[in-house]
Amino acid sequence: MGMEDITGRPAPRSKRLTPLVWAQRNLFSSVSNTILTLVSAYLLWLTIPPVLDFTIFSAVWTGTTREACLAPGAGMCWPFIWANIDQFIYGRYPPEEIWRVNLTFALGAAVIIPMLIPGLPARRLNLVFLLIVYPLVAIVLLAGDRPGLRPVPTSEWGGLLVTLVVAVTGIVASLPLGVLLALGRRSNMPAIRMLCIIFIEFWRGVPLITVLFMASVMLPLFLPEGMNPDNLLRVLVGVALFSSAYMAEVIRGGLQAIPAGQYEAARALGLTYWQAMGQVVLPQALRHVIPGIVNTFIGLFKDTTLVLIVGIFDLLGQVRAQLSDPNWTLPQGALTGYIFAALVFWAFCFGMSRYSTFMERRLDTTRER
Amino acid sequence: MSDGNGKRLKVSDKAMIEMRGVNKWFGDFHVLKDIDLTVQEGERIVIAGPSGSGKSTLIRCINHLEPHDEGSIVIDGIELTEDLKRIDEVRREVGMVFQQFNLFPHMTVLENCTLAPLWVRKMPEKEARDLAMKFLERVRIPEQASKYPGQLSGGQQQRVAIARALCMNPKVMLFDEPTSALDPEMIKEVLDVMVELAQEGMTMLCVTHEMGFAREVANRVVFMDAGEIIEEAPPQEFFSAPKNARTKEFLAQVLAH
To answer: B109-119 vs B125-138: helix axis angle to the nearest 10?
Structure first.
């Protein structure tokens, strides 16, 4: 191979650098860069080894009692997790009825996963299942409010089950509600516009904790005697309305990015307002704001931990509850529990994030210029 | 192509569009002033005038993209009021082509064309596809059917926009400066399609600065300035013997180069 190719131009310089050259160019190119590199390296050296030691090298992987984790210098105590895994997933749900929760999870996966794979047929039917049929089936299965199924009050639900119920309800309800609110806020009809603005600004203006307190403590005071909706149900409604206000503003951002000509062209063809929105404007607007929508979903998923303050035990709450179990008092107990909870939350949120990246890239091919 | 007097095509006595005493304001700005305009079935009207004279607003009133404040607009016997049903009825019969094409970028060319037949006419999918292909062939781009608008040139996009409007079998076609956003070398391909459409007897209202097109196909040229119709005449008369001083000034500017 010569230095020149057949065009007579010099061969392009290789992009591959030896590690030494790479380091010199990127890490030690100037005095200030060298200082920054050294300080960063020192900080990493201070933090990374202890973390790896606790979570991996000194972690206790097997065992059934706390004694397994009492060795000096022992790290993350997995026996604590395994011993309490049922509580973490199902809370105080009666053990002999746990199959109902598992069935609900399995059905949920069966409905949601086909929804997420682009290009599958019968998506409309699938959406009807997800939005209408599945919630009803899930309520019957989980609450058992039918003959043949033992009723399980929501006060016995807990752990990941509650986290998922709150998050999925919030996510599934906030998207359609958010779309309606965003359209309403841009409506020509002053009454509708005003109502939507008031709704959005009210729910956006109060902290989620306030919403939860109101739903759980204040609301029963205002309701007529004898009418006492379930605590979890009240929280679900509160979370759904709260997140739909955020969603509305994200979607409104997307709607504003669509030129007026798109809507006009659709109307000029004879499409009605809802057809023009549903077929032309919204598909483009939602595509623009996938990152914002997923951002809201992720925020909502993590905010579900706040239900702890109204006495509902989500995954994090259940982990905290098990920490006070006298059988499992351990010096590294709290750290173990929180790292486990963080791992579970991270797995769900990272999954959503990866999926949104995938969808963005997939949908982008239609917009190439 | 021209026969000298621009009247080779038959024009029926039936009024397709009747505008009587139409007034419109944008806030304090009086954008349309006492517009009276009648268009017979099969007539081809070119609306000319300086920018900001209300040409686009006028044709946008015809399919109620802009509501008018006073006067009456009757399209093929249907009067435009605030009644949404009537507005939709009129829009089904009136096709429109925009300066910025306004194709739907998230749909293929074919889907752009079948959208309205499927949703508005409730046509079966196969039939809508055949119809769309027929019109795509007429505008000479059937081979682009599965592409997205962003992959086409401006001239091709505008021809798709024309095909999309034709798929609704409109009785009237409105063109709002259809060639103004195009590179010069693409103007001809779009004008050719429009000339063919005119020769087939389509009732057309066209806002354009293409005076060659006006000479070739228009029955009448309508000249607007400051929201008023100043002059209305067959193209020959309009170009050779304009009556109004403002018309003369305008023609001197557009025909200078």
So the answer is: 130
Instruction: Report the gap between the CA of B257 and the closest CA in chain A (Å).
Output: 32
Which of left, alpha, beta for A207 (phi over 0: left; psi -120 to 50: alpha)? beta
Measuring CA to CA, which residue among B215, B186, B176, B181 is closest to residue B198? B215
pTM metric for this prediction: 0.83
- B120 Cβ under 8 Å from any chain A Cβ: yes
Q: List Cα–Cα distances, B119 to A146, A269, A279, in angstroms.
A: 42, 10, 9
In one-letter notation, the amino acid at residue A250 is V
Q: What is the pLDDT of residue A368?
A: 47
Q: Provide, rounded to the nearest whole percent, the portion of chain A with pLDDT above 90.
A: 43
Give yes or no for A266 touching B (CB within 8 A). yes
CA atoms within 13 A on the CB side of A146: 9
Contact between residue A238 and residue A215 where contact means Cβ atoms under 8 Å apart: yes
Residue B152's pLDDT is: 93
CA-based R_g, chain A, Å? 27
Q: What is the pLDDT of residues A17-73, one digit of tens each?
A: 788 888 888 888 889 999 999 999 999 999 999 999 888 888 888 888 888 888 888
Contacts A259 to B, Cβ<8 Å? 100, 102
Query: Residue A311: is its pLDDT beyond 90?
Result: no
Is residue A361 predicted with pLDDT exceeding 50? yes
Count Cβ atoms below 10 Å from residue B211 Cβ, excluding itself: 18
Which amino acid type is present at position A81? I
Tokens matching residue A44: 């990493």
CATH number for the domain whose boundaries are A153-368: 1.10.3720.10
Which token pair is A290? 């996938």
**Could you tell me which of A347, A358, A332, A359 has the C-alpha nearest to residue A302?**
A347
Checking A350-358 for CB contacts under 8 A at 24+ apart, the result is: A352/A294, A352/A297, A352/A298, A352/A301, A353/A294, A353/A298, A355/A116, A355/A294, A356/A290, A356/A291, A356/A293, A356/A294
- R_g (Cα) of chain B, nearest Å: 18
CB B23 within 8 A of CB B30: yes
Examine the pLDDT at B3 and tell me if it is beyond 70.
no
Q: Does A270 touch chain B (CB under 8 A)?
A: yes
How would DSSP label each residue in A251-274? HHHHHHTS-HHHHHHHHHTT--HH
Phi, psi of A77 (to 5 degrees): -100, 90
pLDDT at A366 over 80: no
Residues 6+ apart with CB under 8 A from A309: A209, A212, A213
Q: Do A366 and B148 touch (CB under 8 A)?
A: yes
* A147-177 per-position pLDDT tens digit: 778 888 888 888 999 999 999 999 989 999 9
Global ipTM: 0.91
